[in-house]
Amino acid sequence: MILRDFAEESCHALNIRGLCRVDFFVDQATGKYYLNELNTMPELTLDSMFASLWRASGLEYPLLLDHLIEFAQKK
Fold this sequence. Notes:
It is a single chain. By secondary structure, the chain is of the alpha+beta class. It folds into two domains: about 1-40, no CATH class; about 45-75, no CATH class. Helices cover about 45% and strands about 20% of the residues. The chain has three helices and two strands, in the order αββαα. The protein has helices at about 5-15, 50-55, 60-75, and strands spanning about 20-25, 30-40. β1 (about 20-25) and β2 (about 30-40) form a beta hairpin. It is globular. It starts with a helix and ends with a helix. About 0% of the residues are buried. The model has no long low-confidence stretch (mean pLDDT about 90).
């Protein structure tokens, strides 16, 4: 399982929808990952970790905001 899958499963298990950042710890000696927290109100600036992670996956900030707004309007 990749971390993104684990993060998504964690959000679904807690019925979290929309904006969320899932943080992990990594044990460098073993390579194991541990869930640290689910942050349902992460900072949402152009340079925030939330926006940076989405940018790294190919979703630029303006489109991220568009997606979040569209998702909220549907709910």
